């Protein structure tokens, strides 16, 4: 596994720390900018299956659709595929004594969660994403 796998979206967003703090809630800032993780089963989208598009809470880029959301029982919203391959970037994460693949928004580089190879077909992937990193745009 490579350390960095970047898929660049259109127009990267760069902001100062103070700009991010003004625009995001404390939980959104902690997750998106400091790579924090919500407590399992605490996020607003964990058990929500309303139709729509999930966008990045930091920059508004489309990340996932409700068609690819499933109940994995892991405690965080889970998706089997991104809305577009170019909407996500991945990095190797060796924190907490584990080796995982971190998922980032390709436009603002906000931390979203992690991807695991134990999801349903056809991709076999489970994108385990923090609710605080998302906003649902209803259909």
Automatic annotation (TrEMBL):
- Name the Pfam families on file: SelR
Q: Which UniProt keywords apply?
A: Metal-binding, Oxidoreductase, Zinc
> What is one Gene Ontology biological process annotated in the Swiss-Prot or TrEMBL record?
protein repair
Record InterPro entries: Met_Sox_Rdtase_MsrB, Met_Sox_Rdtase_MsrB_dom, Mss4-like_sf
Q: Which SUPFAM superfamilies match?
A: Mss4-like
Give the residues annotated as active site: 128 (nucleophile)
Which metal ions or organic cofactors does this protein require, according to UniProt? Zn(2+)
Cite the cofactor comment: Binds 1 zinc ion per subunit. The zinc ion is important for the structural integrity of the protein.
Transmembrane parts of this sequence? none
Catalysed reaction, written as an equation: L-methionyl-[protein] + [thioredoxin]-disulfide + H2O = L-methionyl-(R)-S-oxide-[protein] + [thioredoxin]-dithiol
Enzyme nomenclature, EC number: 1.8.4.12
Q: Name one GO cellular component term.
A: cytoplasm
Q: Which residues form a coiled coil?
A: none
The entry lists its GO molecular-function terms as: peptide-methionine (R)-S-oxide reductase activity; zinc ion binding
Q: Which domain of life is it from?
A: Bacteria
Q: Where is the MsrB domain positioned along the sequence?
A: 17-139
| Residues annotated for Zn(2+) binding in this entry | 56, 59, 105, 108
| Record-stated family | Belongs to the MsrB Met sulfoxide reductase family.
Protein name in UniProt: Peptide methionine sulfoxide reductase MsrB
Species: Afipia massiliensis
Q: What is the lineage of its organism?
A: Bacteria, Pseudomonadati, Pseudomonadota, Alphaproteobacteria, Hyphomicrobiales
């Amino acid at each position: 596994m490579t350390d960095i796998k970047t898929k660049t979206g259109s127009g990267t967003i760069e902001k100062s720390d103070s700009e991010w703090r003004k625009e995001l809630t404390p939980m959104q800032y902690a997750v998106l900018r400091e790579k924090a993780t919500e407590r399992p089963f605490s996020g607003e989208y964990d058990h929500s299956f309303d139709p729509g598009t999930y966008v990045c809470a930091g920059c508004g880029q489309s990340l996932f659709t409700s068609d690819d959301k499933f109940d994995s029982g892991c405690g965080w919203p889970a998706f089997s595929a991104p809305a577009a391959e170019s909407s996500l970037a991945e990095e190797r994460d060796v924190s907490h004594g584990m080796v995982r693949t971190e998922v980032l928004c390709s436009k603002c580089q906000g931390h979203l969660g992690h991807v695991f190879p134990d999801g349903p077909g056809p991709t076999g992937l489970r994108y385990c994403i923090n609710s605080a990193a998302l906003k649902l745009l209803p259909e």
